[in-house]
What we know:
By secondary structure, this protein is an alpha+beta fold. About 25% of the residues lie in helices and about 20% in strands. It contains six helices and 13 strands. Strands 1, 2, 3, 4, 6, 9, 10 and 11 form an eight-stranded mixed sheet that branches. The radius of gyration is 20 Å and the shape is globular. About 35% of the residues are buried. Belongs to the GIPC family. This is PDZ domain-containing protein GIPC2. Pfam families: GIPC1_GH1, GIPC1_GH2, PDZ.
Amino acid sequence: xxxxxxKKKTKxxxxxxxxENEEMDGLPGPGKSSVNGGGLPxxxxxxxxxxxxxxxxxxxSPTGRIxxxxxxxxxYCKIAEAxxxxxxxxxxxxxxxxxxxxxxxxxxxxxxxxxxxxxxxxIKKEVEVVKSEDxxxxxxxxxxxxxxxxxxxxxxxxxDGVKVICVGDHIECINGKNIVGSRHYEVARMLxxxxxxxxxTLKLVEPMKAFEMLEPRSRxxxxxxxxxxxxxxxxxxxxxxxxxxxxxxxxxxxxKAVKKVDDLLESYMGIRDTELAATMVEVGRDKKNPDEFxxxxxxxxxxxxxxxxxxxxxxxxxxxxxQGRF
Length: 326
């Protein structure tokens, strides 16, 4: 429907998976994917991409070898199986670094040569915060498997003054309400709606750290060009709906458009989600006007209720990318 009328739609350890060093082989060539997974069921194991990835626990472990997954939840189960863990112990994964680096966070794409580091639950903590400003200064994301966590803390913000709260912390409870299983946009909305000038309580779980990994609570962004994921032969695209697909590396248009849309998500909604941004760019690539784009978003992403001005800005960002104006 046109803009202004849109509404939100209502185990034992397997040592065979642990290796010291092994080259990946049997990788298929890149293929094409459809725009919308449309809630398709995962393909049978025999038809899933025959890919092998290597993984370690971020705080230190042998190297694990995983394959045969089609979405993020299955990926976490495979990692947990390799290291004799329960899947809920895994908070999030980073690519090609063991550090809590939000620029290397595993999202909707994995380069076919990427190394996966799994960050598991560490210390639990509880903190009281006075919401002295309308905005807390938090950017929220989630791991695609039920855990929302802090991706960014704005310098000089309310939360920046609470030094026990760190980037990478999983938000488990808000004012005693367990929010495990909530999506990042739901958590961001809960935090935004907390009354000003009142105290609220957060229960947090920080990622486990090795001793040598202890470092300042936040880091600046990496210089341009250092944050690309993957080095060649394509990427594995993981979708919240539908099967994973092997695709070519993103084009310059896609990279610039996805980054801009992700920035708009943070500005309007207080979240970061490269998978969501990539899906929006995909949906808008061939749309002729904002109303057509808005209707396509409702069809593809009915769980989200986007403000009209946000949809207009996303439409403009995709158009700018097409014209090379970034």
